[in-house]
Specification:
136 residues; alpha+beta; six-stranded antiparallel sheet; 3 helices; 33% helix; 27% strand
Length: 136
């Protein structure tokens, strides 16, 4: 869990007191009703959700990065800088229990920009198919 917070912590430490908007989601595997096991089905859900995230990120012009020490299983960044958007980051991490955590962070801003808000809403809608639980 601590490693999962590294990307957000790094962004906040670099920016100091500059405002950042962020949203976190958890996608937990639903137990298979026939077997009561959630791991195998969860891996399928995580893989499908990661594929879906990649497609959504591409639609919004985010560049996929190689895995890094940030703790993200998959990570995407805004390719081009737009007015009022210093950075836009999408991070996904698959845990050993097949729970998928997804973060979207945007800064330097005290409110979501139209691009960030649209991406956040698209993620909410898309991840709902995989058992989305928004985390405040």
């Amino acid at each position: 869990m601590v490693r999962a917070l590294i990307p957000v912590g790094l962004v906040l430490s670099v920016l100091g007191c500059d405002p950042v908007m962020s949203q976190r989601f958890r996608v937990s595997p639903a137990p298979d009703t026939a077997t009561g096991r959630s791991v195998a089905r969860g891996l399928v859900n995580s893989t499908g959700a990661l594929r879906m995230l990649h497609g959504v990120a591409e639609q919004y012009g985010l560049l996929h990065l190689a895995p890094s020490r940030s703790g993200c299983t998959q990570e995407w960044h805004l390719q081009d800088h737009f007015p009022d958007v210093e950075f836009l980051v999408l991070c996904a991490q698959v845990h050993a229990d097949s729970v998928l955590e997804v973060w979207i962070s945007e800064g330097i801003t005290s409110r979501w920009t139209p691009k960030g808000d649209s991406l956040r809403r698209a993620l909410t809608d898309s991840l709902a198919r995989f058992g989305l639980v928004p985390v405040p």
